[in-house]
Amino acid sequence: MTPEVEAAFAAIRAECGAESITRVERMLEPGGGERHPLQKRARWIMPGLSPTPWHDPYAYAELAPVVHGLEAGHGAIKEELNSAWERRREDFSDYEHYLTRQEDWQALYLFRGGGLVEQSAVTAPTAYRLVKDLAVDTEKICPLLECHFSTLLPGAVIEPHCDLWNFSINLHLAVDIPDGCSLTVAGRTRSWEEGKCLLFDYSFEHEARNLGNRPRTCLLIDLWHPETTPPERRALVALITEIRRLMGE
Q1: pLDDT in the model for residue 89
Q2: pLDDT for residue 98
Q3: Segment 232-241 mean pLDDT
Q4: Which CATH class is domain 54-224?
Q5: What is the spatial distance between Cα 130 and Cα 66, in angstroms, rounded to a whole number?
Q6: 67 sits in which H/E element
Q7: Cβ atoms of 9 and 218 closer than 8 Å
Q8: Phi and psi, residue 3, nearest 5°
Q9: Could you tell me the residue ranges of all domains in the chain?
Q10: Can you name the residues that pair with 15 across neighbouring β-strands?
Q11: Are 133 and 125 in contact (CB under 8 A)?
């Protein structure tokens, strides 16, 4: 660890207790502890979090208000999204995953780089307001990642991959879903139900397909894993921010 990370960790331990970030520190040990075979390609696995690929989006008291709020706003969110797709296509861009960039995977960002994307308040006002009120202002969003509309064009395939870590979790609001779309996580395939949310741990190998005849759009939000604690979240932000600084990101 760098002196900056060591200082941040020491401050958290002093405020929250000596054992408050033990799981984060164990994650950094050589080998990083045991992990599920389908998490092998994730970079970091924090020990002690349930190794569950698919989660019930309504099961966590912390996340339930986000889920219910987004589902209640689905009608307006879809209407505004479709209008933006037709009239403000320049606001969408090729999605730049840390592994690749895909022209048939388009993104409209609401939260990125640690803050809200203010332009999207005009493009997608209902989604922007709900994400701000339910996830950003309540600090349920993982500030290390993002929230965006994810649009897969017809025929698009996201190949099997693991994302970086398990201490955040991915929530999908199914905004506009044609027939022929699927999401597979750890070998189990599901379809989106328009207007409903799916929740999964993307440190497990996963893939998505749009075999339909029109674009498939979900609103994706990277939330803190509900089994992480506030001190751990502080430590993880300090750690990943310093790693990104050293890597020139």
Answers
A1: 82
A2: 61
A3: 98
A4: mainly beta
A5: 8
A6: helix 64-72
A7: no
A8: -55, -35
A9: 1-20+229-249, 54-224
A10: none
A11: no
| Structure letter (DSSP) for residue 37 | G
Query: For 184-203, what is each residue's pLDDT tens digit?
Result: 999 999 999 999 999 999 99
Per-residue pLDDT reduced to its tens digit, 217-233 = 999 999 999 999 999 99
Which of 19-33, 61-75, 135-149, 228-242 has the least mean pLDDT? 19-33
Q: Does the pLDDT of residue 81 top 70, yes or no?
A: yes
99 pLDDT higher than 70: no
As beta bridge partners, residue 232 has none
User: How does 110-145 read in b/e, with b if 16+ C-beta sit within 10 Å?
Assistant: bbeeeebbeebeebbebbbebbbebbbeeebbbbbb
User: Token pair of 110, please?
Assistant: 């609401």
Structure tokens at 67: 């889920």
Exposure letters 160-187 (e unless 16+ CB within 10 A, then b): eebbbbbbbbbbbbbbbbbeebebbbbe
Distance between CA atoms of 240 and 207, rounded to whole angstroms?
25
Q: What pLDDT was estimated at residue 32?
A: 72
Whole-number Å distance between alpha carbons of 238 and 8? 7
State which H helix or E strand residue 173 sits in.
strand 168-176
